[in-house]
What does this fold into?
Amino acid sequence: MNFEFDMTIWDVLDELSESPPTSSLDAMWDCLDAELENLPLEAQLLTAALAFSQIADILKSRAEVLLQDTHDRSDNML
It folds into this structure.
């Protein structure tokens, strides 16, 4: 996945939520770091908390897809 430099963390998270479950999250961490860099402490904490909540939702969805794929493959082997 190729992210543009002017994308916000929210843009990146939106794209990640629709990307394949095996796509890398590396660019998202870089974007989050850049987003937090110039914010005051309270805004950093709020932004990070909201981002982590969305990241958890993305990871949960990815895990569900991967588990379903594994379950489907094991059913086909029987």
In short: The first helix runs from residue 9 to 18.
